[in-house]
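S.,

Sequence below, as promised.
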Amino acid sequence: MPSTLKLTREPVTLLRIGEVKQRSQVPIKTIRYYEELGLIKAKKRSEGGFRLFSTDVLPRLAFIKRSQKLGLSLQEINEILSIHDHGELPCEEVKQKFQTKIHQIEEQIEQLGLLKAQLQTLISVQPSAASSDSICPIIESADTAAG
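The prediction came back faster than expected:
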């Protein structure tokens, strides 16, 4: 007896925004903001006007949060997701963005080193006699001490 293969479609589970919040630990206001920016999309709205999301939104939200922790802006994340949404792996784009971030971090480290040296110099300066309109001679002498 030949067997017939039945292809049944599993019903798609749709989540209301409160359920997405609970499962993702992302605040509702943030979920709405991400939707406004196009980072995520609601599948549809309920008859009562509630946003309904597929469960696919959960790993996408996790990706967004992880990307932010790695220093990517929402605009950069949107660019990466757009590449993904067109069926391509965005890894080369991610590598380029990370290289840029590394360069920015190196510049920040250099600037912080200069600031640290300036602050150490100011700590060692004995403040001159304050005039009546002076607030703090150490800070006010910062331009001359740094120069």
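Residues 11-71 form a domain with the Multidrug-efflux Transporter Regulator; Chain: A; Domain 2 fold (CATH 1.10.1660.10).

Coffee later?
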